[in-house]
């Protein structure tokens, strides 16, 4: 039988804002990873009793949803909004902007892929991406499918990069992460895994911007093919 949801009585209001609570939660995520932003931890960081947090957010799920919106709200739409630029350049600019923003808050990545992204900033980003793909010549159904494919690729790639660290905290520089992976995979026994041993340098670079863009360009090649097919039909 499912547990009944416990209704918490809001704590006393003090001179505190939702943004301050989200700043504290994001700081905890940045320092300690996806499990660090507990309501008790947030309250301690802003100097209030835990019940006071419930004055602003009814539960932790509401805090998480607001955090997702906060991170997505930091995405600069201007980098890909110019409709005079080639559509592939605009998609690449968006993909790099998302990667930069999410890499700055690796602890938030798991939260973002762990639930629906349906807030105003998420919807605005999706709308802009659909506009971009429609500008590329895709009809609305293919544009929606391509938008989902690109979002899955971007968030999935970054989630794997974060998971590769196996520890919370900020992402080290790309060169450092690649070097660490290269040392780890250099021990691959060539007799047992000859193809993997021969590809060590490439495998070490899976967390690199070059690999990220390589995969993105392959996706865009496929979308371009669908675009041509749409034009011919």
Q: Could you outline the blueprint of secondary structure elements for this entry?
A:
Elements: H1 18-32, H2 39-46, H3 50-53, H4 60-73, H5 87-104, H6 106-113, H7 120-135, H8 140-165, H9 174-185, H10 194-198, H11 200-204, H12 209-232
How is this structure best described in words?
The protein is an all-alpha fold and 233 residues long. It folds into two domains: 18-58, Orthogonal Bundle (Arc Repressor Mutant, subunit A), CATH 1.10.10; 75-232, Orthogonal Bundle (Tetracycline Repressor, domain 2). Helix content is 67%, strand content 0%. The protein is built from twelve helices and no strands. The chain has helices spanning 18-32, 39-46, 50-53, 60-73, 87-104, 106-113, 120-135, 140-165, 174-185, 194-198, 200-204, 209-232.
Q: Looking at CATH, which topology of the largest domain would you report?
A: Tetracycline Repressor, domain 2
Tell me the major beta sheet: none
Low-confidence stretches at least 5 residues in length (pLDDT < 50)?
Answer: none
> What is the number of beta strands?
0
Radius of gyration: 21 Å
Structural class: mainly alpha
The share of residues in extended strands comes to under 5%
Mean pLDDT, to the nearest integer, reads: 89
CATH architecture assignment of the largest domain: Orthogonal Bundle
CATH class of the largest domain: Mainly Alpha
Order of helices and strands: HHHHHHHHHHHH
Total helices: the number is 12
